Amino acid sequence: MAGRQLADKWLKTEALLSNADVAPHIPHTQIYSADTLRSMVHQHGMVVIKPLRGGGGYGVIRVVWKNGRYAFTYMSKTRVFGSFEAMFTALEKARMKRKYMIQQGIVLARIGGRPIDYRVKVVKENGKWGYRSMVGRLARPGLFVTNLCKGGTMMTAREGLALSFRNKKVSTGKRREMRNLTNTCISILENAFPGIEQLGFDYGVDTRGKLWIFEVNTRPQ
Q1: Where is coiled-coil annotated (predicted)?
Q2: Half-sphere exposure of residue 95, counting CA atoms within 13 Å on the CB side?
Q3: Could you tell me the pLDDT band of residue 153, with boundaries at 50, 70 and 90?
Q4: Which of 25, 126, 184, 205 to pair with 47, CA 20 to 30 A apart?
Q5: Which residues are bridge partners to 129 per DSSP?
Q6: What's the rounded Cα separation, in Å, for the pair 135 and 132?
């Protein structure tokens, strides 16, 4: 059975935010609007906007505010603006009227200057959830998205954590934390959306070692 599919990222984010143990691991996230984008990019300095539906890194845009100037990056191209209004006008064209959400930008740990994040895939079979994979996804040079379909490099989560932190104890601890958090999230999402049978969790670890949940997919690749 394919199980229930739930494409809307916001609905899954709301469900996870309802849990006091999971909420601290979710970046500040809001539905996209001009006022919210201005407020969040001023608050965090960097945000990522992403379509509410879709995957593969398609349509994901990074927005930065620094030294009074605004910039957004889509794929490998960055455009810089002297005002929020000018940036937002250009951003609206790039967004192509798709519904978006805004997420606090996280400075990820890197390997050779390239950001890395992690995909944990779990599947329910015969009434029990089991782990299918825990992999690291290293961004293609010059990109901030790590998706394999955008040229990212896949490695084991163990290898990615070891290379980005150069500390076996940290690597082992982060993988254990990832599993524990995944198990908690499975229960939350299964209660909220009965019928799901597979989940793909996108995790990031920032430069200080904090674990973040970026999104959860019900159709993980």
Answers
A1: none
A2: 24
A3: confident
A4: 184
A5: 124
A6: 10
Please give the biggest Cα pair distance in the chain.
57
Q: Is the whole-model pTM more than 0.70?
A: yes
Categorize the per-residue pLDDT at 188 as very low, low, confident or very high, splitting at 50, 70 and 90: very high
Mean pLDDT of 20-36: 96
Q: How far is residue 139's CA from residue 71's CA, in Å, rounded to a whole number? A: 20
Helix axes 9-17, 168-192, angle to 10 degrees: 100
90-98's contacts with Cβ under 8 Å and 24+ in sequence apart are: 91/49, 91/61, 91/63, 94/61, 95/32, 95/49, 95/59, 95/61, 96/59, 98/51, 98/52, 98/53, 98/54, 98/59
DSSP symbols for 55-123: -TTTT-EEEEEETTEEEEEETTEEEEESSHHHHHHHHHHHHTT--EEEEE---B-EETTEEEEEEEEEE
- The CB density around residue 11, as the number of other CB atoms within 10 Å, is 12
Closest to 82 in 3D by CA, of 64, 70, 66, 65: 70
Q: In the structure encoding, which two tokens stand for residue 139, read together?
A: 């961004």
Kindly report the length of the chain: 221
Q: Which amino acid is at 52?
A: L
Residues in Cβ contact with 192 at an 8 Å cutoff, skipping those fewer than 6 apart: 15
